[in-house]
Structure formats: C-alpha cells, structure tokens
Amino acid sequence: MLHKALRHCCYASTPTPLFEFQGGSDDSLTEAHPTHLPRRVFTDKEIAVKRSPVPGNHAPVRTLLRGEPDSVTAAGQTHLYTYDFQQPQKAPVERRLVWEECTPEDCGYNITVVHERQEPDQALVCGTDGRETLCCDVNFTAQSPTCTPSDKLGAIESGIRSFIVKEGEPSALVESAESADLYITNSGSQEYVGIHKFGKNRVGPASHNKEQHYVGLMLSRGRDPPLQDKVFAFYKEKNRGTDSRDDMWLPYVTRVCMADIGGRKNNMQLTWTSQMSARLFCGDPGTRQHFSELVDVAVVQADHWQDTRVYGLFRNEWHMTAICVYTIKDFDNIFANSAFEGQTSAYSKDRPRECVEDSRMLSPETLRKIAETSEMVEWVHPVNKSGPLLFNHHNYTHIYADSSQHKRNNPHTVLFLTLNNGAIHKVLQTESRSFFIAEYHPFNHRAHISSIILHPSSRKLYVTTRSELVQLDVENCAKYGDCEECVLARDPYCGWNLTHCSTATNDTLQDLTTGNHTICPVLLQTASRYSTDARAPERVKPIALPPNSKYFLSCPMLSKHAEYTWRQGKDTTLCRLKEQECLLLIDSMSPEQVGTHTCESEELGFKKVLVQYELQLESRAAIGRLSSPLVWVCLVAALIKS
Question: Domain Sema, which positions (predicted)?
C-alpha cells in the first residue's frame, strides 16, 4: 500500500527562506547553516497573523497604538481608521478628519504629520494642500474628529503655515507646560534642506546646494543643565565627487541645540548657530569594506543620556546591508573635539561647541565662522571602534529596536528587520554578537512594508503595506517545543517554565548568550529515549513500496542551525535540502532499503529524532497502482528539484 506521504512530492510550496550558503555541496546542510541564517522560519499559516485591509490602498501616515494591544488607530491621508484586531474580519471604523478652518468642498489637505500629545487622546495633526500647511489639535477618539486651533500649539500653527511639509519626513514634538515646539526635516535638493523648528522661535537651516535625504530624528534630553539638550538628525547626502569610484551616497549625523534661537538681525537671523555635522563610518577597516548609504535608524533610549544607542541600517553599492551601533557619547565626543573641515586647529578652538543661553548675543566674528562651515574633520565610528553588528546580502528596508533588561543584568536588544520581499527577521543583539532568531512571512505574496511598530507589553508587531495592516505575534513561544528547543531558540521573549515554553519571567529558564540546553532538567525516559540521547517520535510510519521504485522520504527541517542526518542501521546519509524539508531519495527500492529509516537533527550537542519510516517491499500485484502518470510526474519533478 502506498503511504499518503507520497503527497509530499506534489505540494504547494511555502515561501522560500532567504538562505545564504557558505560554499559546500547543495545537498549538505553541514555547509549551510551559518549563524546569520534565521534559526526558524514561520509562515503566515504557522503563527498568529491577523490582517485588515487599508482603505484607499495608501499606507497610513502614522499608526497609533492604544492601551489595549488589539486596538489601533491609523491616520490615513484624509481619514482616521480604528482597527479592532479581536474582530479582524470587520472593516475598520472610518472617520473623516474635519478641518475647522475650511469647508469640506474646498478642503484639500492631506495629513502629513501626527504626534500624540501629553493630554490623553489628543494629537497634533498637520496637513498640506500643496500650497500651505495647517496644524491643529485633534481628539482622535471623537466620533467626528475635528482639527481645531490650540493655544499651546498656536506658535507652531502660525509659523508652519507657509511651509510645505512632505509626507514621511522625520519629526519630533516637544511640549512644556505652556508651549510646544515641532522639529521636522526637509529632504531634497531645493532651498533650506535640513532641520526646521516651529514654535515660540522659528529656526531653520542655512541655504546650501547639497542634496540630503533624512531617515531619522531624535531628541537628546535629560542633560545637566537642560540648556545642553540637543536634537540629532540622520541623513544621506548625494556625493558631489566626480570620480566614478566614489560612493554615490555619504552618511551623516547632524545636531542642533534645542535652546538655539538663531543669530543676530541680518546675520544668521532665524538660522541655526549650533549646527554641526559629521560623517558616519560603518564598515571593516581591515578588509576595506564599508557601507555608505544610510537606509534607516532605530533609537534605544537609556537611563543615562550618554548611553542612548542609535542602530544605523546601511547599504553598499552591491546591495549588501549592515548594521552599526553608535552612542550619543560617540557623537558628542566628535562634536566637542574634532576640527572643522577646511579650518585650522586654532580656528576650531575659538568656535563655541556648547549650547548658549541666547544665540543672538554671539559676536559677528563668531557668526561669520559658523556660517563658513559646520562639518567636522573626524568621522563618528561605531561604539568601541567596532565593526558592523552584522552584514549580509539581504536587502533590508526598515529597522525597529526593542530593548529590555535581562533578569541576570545581561543587556540585550531585539531587532526587527524588514526585507524587500515582505519578510521580517527577528535578531537578538547582545553585547558580543548577533543571533538570528527567526524569519517571519506575514504575507503569502511579495509585499512592500512601509512601517513596523511593536506593542511592547503584548509583543504584537504591527506591519503596514499599501493594502494591509497586519498584526503579527512575535512572542510565539509555543512553537519552540520542549525545554532544550526553547533554550536553543535564544528568544528573549520566551523561557521554559518547567512544563512548556512560555512568556519569559524571572522564574523561566533561558540562556541568551550561548543557548546552553544542558540547563534543562533531566527527564526520566526509557522507551522514548535512544542510546544516542536522541528523543524518538511518537510512532514509526510504515510505507510499502514496489521493487525498483523511486521514492522520497521527507523530514521536517525546523532549525536552520541544526545538522540533519538520515540513518538506517549503521549507514548515515546527509539530508537533501528542499525548502523547509530534508529529503532522502530511494533511487531503487530493494531488500537493502527494507527497515527503519530515521531522520535525526543535532544542534549544539542536542540530538532529536524527528521522523521514522518503516520501509517494506510491496508485492508485484500492487505495482499497477504506481502506474498513474500523475504519481510519476510528481516523483520526477521532486527528483529534478532536489
């Protein structure tokens, strides 16, 4: 009798993991599991994925996470949408934003900026019609949300009116008890590209002819004294060099003082006097490999402002990507000590580096020096002069960082990296190394991810495209199996609680540094444990095959960091890799193949029997049942693919 497992040679394929093989034979996993491969791959059918359509096929301008993990408000171009992921099959509640200053007939404003306010349920919303920008206060929980003027936001509203805000520009809102300031970037090659401040004091960049594209903006506050609080922005600048060997893009960090109100009348008036810029270096000086195009940044705030970390996602001309990490202390050291481009050391010493109480009181000579240049000679290198945390051929498009403190005071960060095909990598970053935990496929098709955001307490990741808003559970601990596999997963969100793999607590077993599975309690097993210490499957699967027939035995390949072996008696065979399965080809069924065929995995010394087949010779009377053309087509197709 033919076993139903024959269907394995004719199944609909799942999304193919983006493996990078480091040489060796195609059919050998011993050469194909470097640690920068995701250890596990999860499709949308294997983990909890909830999806809801995005009306109008336009990715949300901003996604706001409410207190409950399943409640999300998204700001579109003209509407606010409320999603309830407890009932994802329901369309989102759609509410059109009403602009108080104009009637619906002549209101052509599209939302470009959304920031949650200090007041509950309130948000600063800005929109542009291509000629001017309106900013106002909105209660985003109201049934008919209305954009109304606000006393606290009044200075922002009046100052930004003639400024055209582009969608997607990084921005930050700073509120005090009496007033508020909005910092926002302006990318491109036109006039006044850079950081702009709207509020009590309107300040902007000096005019220049450089093409700059901004990818991030962050506040550095909590300094002593607060006068030294700063704003940092990150951008890539078009290289104006004429040598064809030069990089097309150059990565930069720039900073301004929050207290800066511009220079004197007719001398840098309303222009930053505190701006300084420095090149970012990401690469390996030893191999002369570097990454010059800044793609995205993620910020992890620290208790002490000096230790706040910036994870920069870079790309090079061969579309390899890398991640380098910097601290605010690294930036401050360069801005405090480096000479300025084209200037002497004596000149550089005379120029102020600290933020001043009133920048309008700077002398004309000082303002003249400031106007000449703001770029530093020295570059900012990653923390401790280290190289990239990781680099590979994956085409990453976004980076998101979730930081927490391990129970044994071992600091770590979980990075989520989106790929250009719609997949997402989950990476553990410790002080010493990177570990690829998993690859998620929230879509069963290629998709362009526009943004990701994590609800920290529920560990639900919200992923947006032009057509969908998806909720993805990235705390999928139950998928890791028994204790050893739970520990080997090295997932900060998961630990072994003596009965199953569950949400990590102070009482669960974990080893994020090495994945040492020997910390698991020893289980007393007899019949279910072999002398090789490999746990056996629940049952052996019998298969009867005709003499001289061809057949594939299939074994699930769970961990990409494990080695997989087929065993029959004393004979061993390395797996043939086909997507997420290991295949063993029975080229011609004969008495030699009769018996038990066992597929076993081994990872860091932990062995496990995944599947066992008992092959038997079928009588010739049943050979006719193998004559179906479809069966032979499937077998030949599987053989060719392998």
Answer: 1-474
